[in-house]
Amino acid sequence: MAFRHGKDTVVLLNSSDISPYTNTTAMTDETDTNEVTCYGAARKAYIAGLGDGTFTIGGVYDDTVAGPRAIIKPLKAAGAPVNFKYRPEGTGAGKAQSSVSVIIKSFNTSSPVAEQVAWTAELQMTGTLDETNQ
What we know:
This protein has one helix spanning about 70-80; strands at about 10-15, 15, 20-35, 45-60, 80-85, 100-110, 120-130. The chain has a single domain, classed as Pnp Oxidase, Chain A, CATH 2.30.110. It is mainly beta. It is built from one helix and seven strands. The chain has a seven-stranded antiparallel sheet with strand order 2-1-5-6-7-4-3.
């Protein structure tokens, strides 16, 4: 087992590399479960349902034209799904990658008095999650 450092993570939103402004990425990949228990059972029974998931990303605010606000806010306003790629091991042949269309549910900023301005965004997966290595 090889351990990986988070500093190598790459995130691409609608083909824009927002990694230089991102310092946290969390992926939630879930499957609905549907109860199918019938009379006489001692325990509940389930079948797998549909997959679902979100990404929560965040980082350091930057007001340049390539910064997170300039990239994410127009995509959120458009409301259309865009491609998102998450590369927890960095970019390179054979390295892990999750690729999926996402809808940007939220974009938030915070301005603590003794800290840098920060941002977070929640991305709702829609459609097929492709986890084929790069």
